Amino acid sequence: MKSLLELIRVSLNESEQRLVLRALKQDPVVWKSLQEASLIGTMVEVQRSTRAFWMPGNLALRLFVPGPAITNDLSLNGIFEEEAHRREGVTLLGRVERGYKPSNLREAALVALELLHRSQESPWERVFSNAQFELDPERWNTPLVCLWAYLEDPRPLLEFLTTLPEPLS
């Protein structure tokens, strides 16, 4: 099995490699998950890809829908249709709202997918009504990093995030 670095090397040019590696290392949960064989094993057929392939949310999709050529729409719809994934996402989101920090990329992606699902029915203010960002905002980092890959237009989410209070010290 190829290492993560080898996969990045064969799929991106040199400047993109540095950019992607720096970005992936920013989130400890993402970086740790990328070291695990279960995720790397889903990427063995990677040849040439874009930087978007290496977005944490898109990488997480491969944990649910492995394959060489998945698209976001197909994968997101397929995951939403899986009742077990939906229930797990709802449960995990409730836990994160109460202070739990996702321990791996799969958990973070399920939370992100549930957030996305709720955002299709309600504005971000209502989606995050129980978030309590000011108490421990770091627990939301990885789910938000995953969510970014699933949004057609991230501006409404960014606008909402800029209205949040500063974390309590």
Descriptive tags:
169 residues, mainly alpha, 11 helices
Blueprint of the fold:
Elements: H1 4-11, H2 14-25, H3 28-34, H4 37-40, H5 56-64, H6 72-81, H7 83-97, H8 105-119, H9 124-127, H10 141-150, H11 155-161
Helix pairs in contact: 5-8, 5-10, 7-8, 8-10
3D architecture notes:
This protein is mainly α. It has 11 helices and no strands. α5 packs across α8 (105-119), α5 (56-64) crosses α10 and α8 (105-119) crosses α10 (141-150). It starts with a helix and ends in an 8-residue tail after the last helix. 28% of the residues are buried.
Output the structural class. mainly alpha
Helix content: 55-70%
Total strand segments: 0
Mean pLDDT: 83
Task: Give the DSSP E fraction (strand runs of 2 or more residues).
Answer: under 5%
Largest beta-sheet characterization: none
Subunit organisation of the chains: single chain
**What is the N-to-C order of secondary-structure elements (H for helix, E for strand)?**
HHHHHHHHHHH
**With helices defined by DSSP (H or I, 4 residues minimum), what is the helix count?**
11
* Cα distance spanning the termini: 45 Å
Uncertain stretches: 68-74
The whole-angstrom Rg is 16 Å
Shape: globular
